Request: fold
Amino acid sequence: MLDKYLTQETCLLGEKCEANKSLHLNSAKIPRLAVSREFVYRLFYPQIPIVLTARSGKSTAAMPAVSCMSVSNDPPLLAVAVDKSLKTNRVLKKATNFGVNWIDFRKRRIADSLSLPSKTNDKLKQAGIPYIDLLNAPILEDSMAYVICKKTQELNLGDHTLFVGEVIGAMASTDFDEYWKYSEYRPLLYRGSPFRAPYLTVARSG
Reply:
């Protein structure tokens, strides 16, 4: 039934697709379509977008990013992938530290504003988003939590650069106590730009 979708153009198996149709799971309970390799990243949506910030010289960069993760507990390391064509990438390459900011769904305007390219050296100031400098990293005053990292490594991965940083400081609202309680914090969830309302949130805990 799904054979018509299993083409070399769309199937993850590429040239091996026609010879390996037996590897495809076809379930009557869960109908499936082949996913083009260029859209695989969308399978991870919705995701919580953090606001990545960095400063180098007179340039202050900021952008929402979903490709951010914890990659080590000891030492505590975070990694974030940034498109090589973006100004934030160029600033991060020269920066010593960077900030990771979590924002509330009610502050989603911040993510919208920072999704647009900047015409000045200070993107946060241009967008009217208040921030302070902590340990050489711009930190949003409206962040529900933030982490400051010392950049330790850069990896070139396709059209992105993976920046790795060691955590040197972290703060969170009182709604966090080893885990988020979600009594006040309403996480911002990004489901993709094609949607009229690209951001979602979760219901508060009872």
Q: What stands out?
A: The chain has three helices and 13 strands.
